[in-house]
Structure formats: C-alpha cells, structure tokens
Amino acid sequence: MRPPIFQKAFYFLIFTFVLGFLLFNLTLDISHHQGYNQLVPLMKHNTSRTSEMNKRRQLISTNAPQHVTKKVVDCKGCKEVLAKAAKYYAEPWKLQDDNHQEFTFRLSSKCNGSEEAIITQANTPLNSVISFSGESRSKADVTPALFDGFPKEHIFSSKKLDTCSVVGNGGILINSTCGKQIDSAQFVFRCNLPPVDKRFKMHVGNKTDLVTANPSIFYIKFAALNKNKTPQFLETMQAYGSSYLWLPAFSLRYNTKISIRAARVIKEFKSPIKPVFANPKYHKKLHSFWSSLGLREARLSTGFMIVSLALEVCKRVDLYGFWPFEIHPERFNLLTNHYYDNVPAKKAFHAMPSEFERLLQLHSKGVLRIHLGDCQPDF
Ligand SMILES: *[C@@H]1O[C@H](CO)[C@@H](O)[C@H](O)[C@H]1NC(C)=O
Ligand SMILES: *[C@@H]1O[C@H](CO)[C@@H](O)[C@H](O)[C@H]1NC(C)=O
Ligand SMILES: *[C@@H]1O[C@H](CO)[C@@H](O)[C@H](O)[C@H]1NC(C)=O
Ligand SMILES: *[C@@H]1O[C@H](CO)[C@@H](O)[C@H](O)[C@H]1NC(C)=O
Fold this sequence. Notes:
This protein is an alpha/beta fold.
C-alpha cells in the first residue's frame, strides 16, 4: 500500500505533464497559423462575438488544411493590407464631412466624372474623334449614326444623390443577408452583369440603377449577340429593370462593335435598359488621378472606377462585396472568387489588394464605408 504523499505527488506529476503538453501544442498551433492572427483584430470591435469567433478560429486552426492558411500569408502585400483592414475596421465608422468634401472636391476637379464619365452629345460632338483608353493608337470617328445613340445630357449632372450602394461581386457576400440594406440606397451600382435572382437576392439585393458589362460576356455567353441568342440576352437584361448599362465600348477595339451592337439590340427590341458608353477620357483622367496618389496599376478594375464615380455623385457611399482575400474576415471559411461562381480574376491586370488598400484608407477617413460583416436581414 502506497503512502498518501506518494499518491499526491504522482497525480501532481501527471497533471503537470498533461498541462505542459496542452500548452506546448497550443503555442505550436498559433505559430503555425500566423495568417489567422492577422485577422483576429477584425472582430475585436464586438466583444460579445469574440468568444464565439475564437471558438471557430480554434476549430479552423486545428482543422484547416495548410493551403488555406498559406493563401493569406503567401499573397504579395496581403499581410500588410490585412493588418490595415483589421486596424481600420476595428474602429467605429462615422461619416466625416470635411474629409469627404475635401476628397470629392479634388476628385471632381481632376476627373469631372459627373459630367464626363459617360459619352454624351454634350461632351463628344459630332465628327469629333474618340481616342481609346486601353490602346493609345485606336481611334473612332463620331459618325451621325454613332452620335445619335449618345444620350443628350449626362445622367448625373442634374443633382447629387443622397445614398449609394456599390456592390462588388466578392464571395464575402454569400450568406451576408445584406440584400435589404444594399437595396435601401437611393442608387445601386453593380458590376459585370451579376445575377440578382431569388437564389441571391437575400444577400445581394435585386435593385439596380447602373450595371457594368464586360463586353467579352456578349461573345462568350450570347454568341456575339447573333439573332438566335438575342432573346436570351434580353431576358438576362430584364433582371436589371430600367437601369443604365455601362459599356466600355472605347477601351479596346475588341469591345467597340459588340458594345454598339448590344446598344442597338436593346433599342430595337425596346428593352427598358439604357445603354451608355464609358468615356475613355474619364478613364484616362481617373488613371492619372489615382497614380498621382501612388496607385500605379496597369489598369484600374471596373469596380474601382465605379467607386470613384460614386464618390463624385453620391453624398454617402457604402461598399459591399469588396474583399480581395480568399478567407472570410469573421467566419474564416474559404471564399469563392465571386458570390455566384469561382472563376479567378485576371490578376495580371488588376492588383486588387492595392486598390483595396486605397478604399480602406477612405474608409478610415470616413469618406466611404466598407461593409465586411453580415447585415441585419430585416434592415
Ligand atoms: C455584436 O454581436 C452580437 C451577436 O452576434 C449582436 O447581437 C450585436 O448586435 C453585435 N453588436 C454590434 C455593436 O455590432
Ligand atoms: C466638366 O465637363 C463639362 C462638360 O464636358 C465641361 O463643360 C466642364 O468645364 C468640365 N469641368 C471641369 C472642372 O473640367
Ligand atoms: C451558407 O448558408 C447555408 C445555409 O445555412 C450553408 O449550407 C452554406 O454552407 C453557407 N455557405 C457559406 C459559404 O458559408
Ligand atoms: C425584387 O424582388 C421583389 C420581391 O421579390 C420584386 O417585387 C421586384 O420586382 C424585384 N425587383 C427587380 C428589379 O426585379
């Protein structure tokens, strides 16, 4: 029979051993998953959620395959942008009128988007020549037929909008329940003909006032808009009601004919959608404006251009679906590239993290607001 003192020492030894083992594993675990540590401060602004999120974080950090964590860490410049996202997003957001006015005044005086973002009869006279934005040598003559299709006046010139939602197509919108909040804005911008049907409506809304189209979709999805595919094209357009359809007809020559054809089809079949051509002059001005602020990308993404336009014409700009990383900032699940598919972006053209960094700066200055978390479903 063992004396009780031995028994106590024995249990104490086992206890210390088990505790040490647990602590050792935990440190090992955390150091293996630096990527998540970058993300943690994102949720610090809501303490009642923190313990719940910590639980999920632990679950992920022990179960997530290595490639999940590597994705955040390996992406060039992502760590820094993520750290900024965490810092800025943790602070409460408030519209800061003087910053907003100062910035939008500079933007307007350099880019004149409210008058020149789209081609109109007022800013592009008959018989003038349009220089393309994406190819320096390409030009187009403004013939009477082309000129007739231009709207007379600019669509934004008459008044300033109060509230605007700009919807990026990021996978972060999945299960966000942001639909009602997005649609509550006076004007909703969307990019690249995203689906807004009942499968997605709850999370992305279904109101659209301006939607952009990358003309390559007309070749790929609608067989270059030949007669057989016209009904399908018009049916797709119905989802956007009577919104403006923004076509970059004069960025690359490849886009010109097909954009003009799209506009003609819409007119011929009396679809309520209103096609407008993006103005390459505006595109070039935006490019030099942003490069003077240190953003030296080969091409600005459409989403980024639309945000710039919204800043000029709206008093209040709310962004949804802008999150260029592959992990959800609060749920930590892997995200698809778009909320509706997982086709990767052309990373060679657009440097989303550096554009996102600019947007974050504007968020932190109270000029616009980026929404990353979920919304109240019955906003
Ligand atoms: C914090 O999270 C809880 C639970 O998700 C939620 O009910 C509450 O509204 C949140 N508070 C803030 C300030 O976002
Ligand atoms: C903006 O564009 C309009 C129309 O082209 C022009 O009349 C106006 O002078 C421009 N304003 C600035 C500040 O460039
Ligand atoms: C979204 O929510 C549904 C229903 O709760 C769930 O089945 C699905 O896995 C969720 N998707 C993501 C990406 O979170
Ligand atoms: C959006 O959905 C609502 C309710 O389902 C519907 O009444 C409305 O017509 C839809 N809007 C558009 C632009 O399709």
